[in-house]
Automatic annotation (TrEMBL):
Descriptive protein name: Bile acid:sodium symporter
Topology term for the membrane: Multi-pass membrane protein
PANTHER family per the UniProt record, alphabetical: P3 PROTEIN-RELATED, SODIUM-BILE ACID COTRANSPORTER
Predominant place of localization: membrane
Transmembrane segments: 7-27, 33-55, 67-93, 99-120, 127-151, 157-178, 190-211, 223-245
Family annotation (InterPro entries): BilAc:Na_symport/Acr3, Bilac:Na_transpt, Na+/solute_symporter_sf
Phylogenetic classification of the source organism: Bacteria, Pseudomonadati, Pseudomonadota, Gammaproteobacteria, Pseudomonadales
Pfam families tied to this protein: SBF
Amino acid sequence: MSALVALSRFVGNTFAIWVLLFAVLAFLLPSAFLPLTAFIVPLLGLIMFGMGLTLKTEDFREVARHPLRVLIGVLAQFIIMPGMAWLLCQLFALPPEIAVGVILVGCCPGGTASNVITWFAKGDVALSVGITAVTTLLAPIVTPALIWLLASEWLPVSFWAMFSSILQMVLLPIVLGLVAQRLLGERVKLAVDVLPLISVVSIVAIVAAVVAASQAKIAESGLLIMAVVMLHNTLGLGLGYLAGVMTGMPLAQRKTLSIEVGMQNSGLGAALASAHFSPLAAVPSALFSVWHNLSGALLATFLRRMKDERDK
C-alpha cells in the first residue's frame, strides 16, 4: 500500500506533465480517447467526492477567523476571471461557441490544484482551502448566474439547467464525501492518501476526452484559443496578486490570492460545456487545464523565493 501512496504522491507532483502528455496524445490519436467523453460528468463527480473527503472543520474555521480575507478572495475570484473572460471575448471577436467556453471557465470556482500550488509557493494554505471551499459551495448559484449574464449575447444559456447540473456534479458529490468522512472516520485516511492519483487520472481523462472530441476544431483555431487562455490565466494571476496588494494583505496572502484567482476548476468548465453547449465550447477549459497547471507551477517556483519586507 505504501507503494500506491508513493505513486499517488509522484503523480500528483507531476500533474502538469500528465495533462500535457495526454492532451497531445488525444490530439494525435483522437479515436482512442473518444469513448472517454461518456465519462466526463462521472469523473468530475469523483473529483468532487474526493474534495468532500478532504474537507475538515478547520478549513471552515479559517472563514470564521479571517472572514474579510476569504470574502476578498471570493469576490476577486468571481469578478476578475469572469470580467477578463468577457473582455477577451470582445477584444478577440471570438466565435460564439469559443466565447461561451472562455466565459464558462472564467465563471467556475477555484480548482483544488490551487491549494497544492499555494503550498509550494509558501502562501497561506488555510486561506487557499477556505476560498476554494466557499467558491465551490457558492458555484451552483453564482456560476450559472454569471454565465447567463455574460454569455447570453453569444448563445442561449439556461440558468436552471446549469444550476441543476452543478448541484449534481459538484454539491451532491461533496456532501456525499463529507458524509463518508464522518461515517468512516480514520478509515478514510487511506482513501485520502491515494486521492492525488484518482484526481489526476480523472482530470487527464476529461482533458483527453475534450481534446479528442474537438480535434478538428482545435487544429483549425487552437492557436487563437490557446492565446486567449494564456492571457486569461496571466491576467487572473496578476490581478489576483494586485487585489491582495490593494487590500493591504501580507505577502503569503497575496500569493494565495494570485493563485486562487488565476487557477480555475477547469474540469467543471469542460463538463458543463460538454453537457450544455458543444465539444468546441469545452476546448477552452481543456486547454486552460493544461496551461494553468504549467503556469501555476512556474509562478510558485518564483513566488516561494519572495520574502515579506517585514521578514528582511
